[in-house]
Fold this sequence. Notes:
Blueprint: H1 3-18, E1 22-30, E2 35-43, H2 55-60, E3 65-69, H3 76-99, E4 111-116, H4 121-126, E5 130-131, E6 141-143, E7 150-154, H5 165-168, H6 173-184, H7 193-208, H8 215-256, H9 261-270, H10 275-284, H11 287-294
Parallel strand pairs: 3-4, 4-7
Antiparallel strand pairs: 1-2, 2-3, 5-6, 6-7
Helix pairs in contact: 1-7, 6-8, 7-8, 8-9, 9-11
Amino acid sequence: MTRQLHDQFAKQYLEELLAPLGQVETSRDVSPEVRQVDVWFVPTASPSTEPQVLGLLGQMALSACSFEPFRNQPSPVEVRNCLLKLYSLHGELLRKARRENDSVSEAELPILWILSPTCSANLLNGFGAKLDSLGNWVEGVYFLPEYQKTALVAINQLPVTEATLWLRIMGRRETQKQAVQEIKALPSNHPFSKNILEIVGKWYFKLQTSQNLDEEDREVLMNLSPAYLKWREDVVQEGRREERREMVENFLQIRFGALDEQLAGAIPSMLQLPSEELTRLLLTLSREELLERFGGGG
C-alpha cells in the first residue's frame, strides 16, 4: 500500500466521521512557510450527531484539534514536524485574534492527535509522553507535557471496545482485522455504517488495482476484504431495491393514471412485502384499498 493511498483513506475517513460534529478541513495550509495539517477540525455548537457515537474519536473532537494519521510508527523527526505544524497553526490563530481585537486562551488552542499503529517505548520516552493520570483517557493515549498540547495514540494498545472502533480501523495486522469485522457487523441503521463501508470498500479496490504490492499491502487487502465484500453486496441489494421501487411506481402510474403524493407515500410499506404477494395486491386492490392497507403521505 502506498503512503499516498493510506493518507487519502485516512483523510476521507476522518472527514466522514467528524463532519456531523463540526467543520472539517483536510490538507489545511499553515504559514509562514506553507505546511499542511492532514485533518483540521473545529466542533460546532449544535452537531447533527452526538460525539458519544464516535466514542474515543468523539472525545478527541470535543474541542478544536488537528489529526496526523500515520501508516507506520512516525520517526522522531516526523513527530517534530507535526509539532512544528501545530505551533504554526497556533501562531496563525493568535495573529488572527489580534487583528480582530480578540483573544485566544490557552485552553482554546487546538490539540494535536498523532495517530500511529504502534508507539515504541523509545518514542514515548523520548517525547515524555505518558498515560493520563486522572483516568479520563483509555490505555494507548499518551500525552506529551501539558503545554505541548499533543498526544501520541498507539492504536494497537487501545482496548477492544466499541468506543475505540473508529480509530482501530486505522491500525495494522490483527488490530485492523478485528476492527473491520466489527464494522461489517454494525446494524444497517447505524449512522456511519453505510458510508464507512463504502470508504473502506473503495480503499480496498484502489489498493487491489495498485502495482507492485508488497507483503504488508497483501495483508491489508486480506484485512479489508470482508468489508469490501459487504459493501459490494449492499450496493447490489440497493440497486435491486431501486429497480423494484421504480417498477411499483410505473405500475401505479399506469393503473391509476398518476402517482400522487398519497400513493407515493405508501410505496415504502408496499416494498416490505414479498414480490409475489405485492404484485397480486397491486393487481386486485383499488386505490382506496391500497391506501387503507399501506397508508400514505399527505
